[in-house]
Model the fold of this input.
Amino acid sequence: MTDVGLVGTAVVFAVIGVTWAVISVTTGTIVTQLAPASIRGEAVGAYSALVAFAGGLGSVTGGWLAASSCGLAFPVGGGLVLEGAAVVGLLWYRTTTVPEPDRSVA
Done:
């Protein structure tokens, strides 16, 4: 590998790292702000657990799938993105249908 190739690779990985850092902080903040107070702990807990589980499982599964068939890896990845969007839609629906508790003092 040439010096330019090494530097280019380092730059690409740095950009990917910064991008994931921004995504991680932003999505955690969005979950916290959008979740009603009555289910905020549940929402943040579910988000954190899903991120950890998906990161581990996705790395292993993605590596295995890419090593076995790149032609299959892309359609499977696209399908999982669509499934993720469906989960987000369901969670959004749940946050809009759970009423806020009445916190007024009687």
